[in-house]
Amino acid sequence: MAAEPAARGGSPRRPVSPEAPPCWAAARALLPGAREELRLEFGAPVGRSAALLLRRAADLLYGAGGARGPPPGLLRLSEAACDRAWERLNAAAWRAVDREWRRAFSFGCLFRALGLCRAGAASPEALRACDLGLLLGAPVLDGVLLRLAGVLQRHLPGPGAAPPPAPKKVRRGPPPPAVEPAAAVPRLRRPSLERFRDRFLAPGKPLVLQGLVDHWPCMSKWSVDYIRQVAGSRTVPVELGSRYTDQEWSQTLMTVEEFISRYIENENQVGYLAQHQLFDQIPELKQDIGVPDYCSLGKMDEDEITVNAWFGPAGTISPLHHDPQQNFLVQVMGQKYLRLYSPQHSEKLYPHEGHLLHNTSQVDVEEPDLARFPAFEEAPFQDCILSPSEVLFIPAKHWHYVRALETSFSISFWWA
Ligand SMILES: O=C(O)CCC(=O)C(=O)O
After folding, report:
1. What is the DSSP letter of 355?
2. How far is the CA of 9 from the centre of ligand 1 (A)?
3. Separation CA 186–CA 181 (nearest Å)
């Protein structure tokens, strides 16, 4: 008999019953062969009772009942463990949450996702449990949640026969301000690394780069329908409201499918999928992008670069703000209007006082209240309309304001 394949870096996998449904067999096989390899010991902050719930859930999974499908009791125990960890995750500012609680939450989500495979089949709830663990937990067992999400996604029933596509309305916001040639951000086609470094990176001057990312598969492949097809069932954080400085702005979790039907295809509401984990969470999307070559001018390794996704309808606005790192903003779908101000004019831009929004201006760039912010009018700026396949270099600390003119997907690379 052929030997059982070894679980990553561990002992051989525990055999799954031959009658186990294929999804359960594939999901259960992601766990290490021996229960001890789960390492369900937690540091002091995680109370005894949460750890005990997780250990009892593991006992069920590794008992005889775990071979053919989720053992009875697994869901109840894992939900109780998740609830305890969830309370701790929400009790303090994100940075203050102990990593051990995030590990405990990941295990809770892992066991809960398995418990939600009713009769051994994948379910949207199980995939959601994985996504919550990926978004809020700490990585465990060599990225097991990512691998489990992949298995569940493959085994989820498809959406069924699709209704004939409705004629799509192209939603467009108000036209952008006219870009005056003298103030336009310059455009260059694949300048040499040296030219880019000496003329733009070193002096901190914005530039639109062309010809850099045209070959990335996302440029020809991605559309709203494609994103729906690849990522529709995944749960992601979404910002509600047209800008984060508005009183009524909030954040919530929903599936990409819900986001598209509520905010991309609905004329009246604005929601923004602005996410720094999207590409780690959904490797199918990551496969379609690269990293701009010019990032090699920085000191960071590729895996240290922060890659953000910005997917939203016409009218999403990122208020005037600055970030500490260099930025390549790659436009994949739709057009965006961008306005940039040099950090030397910060005083004329009236940054918010206080720590939280100190990098954000109080001024509404396209409708400034000049009675309150009179110097704003004197601040010189550069602007541009960024189109698909173009890349805007935003130097570190440069103020930038962004408005989507139509349904848009951009990717920013923060590097140093
Ligand atoms: O595209 C956007 O809305 C915002 C982009 C941005 O602010 C950034 O990449 O830093």
Report:
1. S
2. 40
3. 9
Q: Is the CB of 412 under 6 A from ligand 1?
A: yes
Alpha carbon distance 410, 396 (integer Å): 18
Same domain, 123 and 258: no
Euclidean distance between CA atoms 104 and 86, whole angstroms: 10
Residue type, 346: S
Side-chain half-sphere of 157: how many Cα atoms within 13 Å?
A: 6
pLDDT tens for each residue of 228-282: 999 999 999 999 976 788 888 889 999 999 999 999 998 677 889 998 899 999 9
More confident: 291 or 172? 291
**For all residues of the chain together, what is the average pLDDT?**
91
Beta-sheet strands, E only, within 235-335 = 235-240, 250-255, 271-275, 306-312, 317-321, 326-333
pTM (two decimals): 0.90
Sheet holding 250-255, edge to edge: 187-189, 207-210, 391-394, 326-333, 408-415, 306-312, 271-275, 235-240, 250-255
| pLDDT at position 247 | 81
Is 406 close to ligand 1, i.e. is its CB under 6 Å away? no
For residues 255 and 125, give the distance between their C-alpha atoms in angstroms, rounded to a whole number: 11
Dist. CA 59–CA 75, nearest whole Å: 13
* Domain end position, chosen among 120, 155, 190: 155
Please tell me whether residues 206 and 136 are part of one structural domain.
no
- Reference 127, options 136, 117, 118; nearest CA is 117
Q: How far is the CA of 402 from the centre of ligand 1 (A)?
A: 7
Q: Is the CB of 323 under 6 A from ligand 1?
A: yes
The answer as to whether 210 is a domain residue is yes
Q: Give the pair of three-digit tokens for residue 407.
A: 């349904």
* Final residue before a domain boundary, out of 110, 140, 155: 155
| pLDDT tens-digit map of 148-167 | 999 999 999 876 555 555 55
Give the distance, in angstroms, between the CA of residue 319 and the centroid of all CA atoms in the same chain. 20
